Amino acid sequence: MKRCLRTAGILVAYAVATISAAAQHTAQSANNEANLILNDLKGQQQSLAQYRGNIVVLNFWATWCIPCIEEMPILTELQRRYEAQGVQVIGASADEPSTQKVIPSFLRKRKIDFPVWLDATTADMQRLALGEELPATAIIDRDGQIVGRILGPVEKQDLQQRIEWLLGDRQSPAPIAVVNNIDKLKQGHTGHKHEEENHEHGGVGVEGASTVPS
Fold first, then answer.
1. Which positions ≥6 away from 3 have C-beta within 8 Å?
2. What is the CATH number for 145?
């Protein structure tokens, strides 16, 4: 089952399942070769292998995941800023068929112009050592190796520093391999409880962890 961090109210409330130290160790010691094959919005098969030679930011998300929605402007800006330098953002959607139908309008409304692939699963995320929580992001170098993992929402400055490090031929000290923003958000937003219905996407936005079939 996948889980998504949910936000609500003026003070954003996050409460998610704690990622264990063992899971962190697995992410750090995992095989870092990035392999993923999914279909795009037109039903055409796409693969990470075809992006060798590019720096790839692979983001797992869903239309019903509020933190995923909130980080989309960061990813969109990153794509436009660095595209000419060989950086490619790819969105791997965990939406089921019942919510996949809203993806095209979702992308148009937010002016998202990077590729979106469908039917991402928990198994895909686990194989890339990204856990089970949405959102999650892998930073992949030009050789197809994962050089960074962000568990939970991305932060603009951190993501830009990672891209600049790769574009600068890794001359500066390497960024930390695994960033766990889930724990950070949990620590900073405890004690809040709220529920709301997400009418636009047809799901229920509930503070805390949410799951969909893998």
1. 16, 17, 132, 133, 134, 209, 210, 211
2. 3.40.30.10
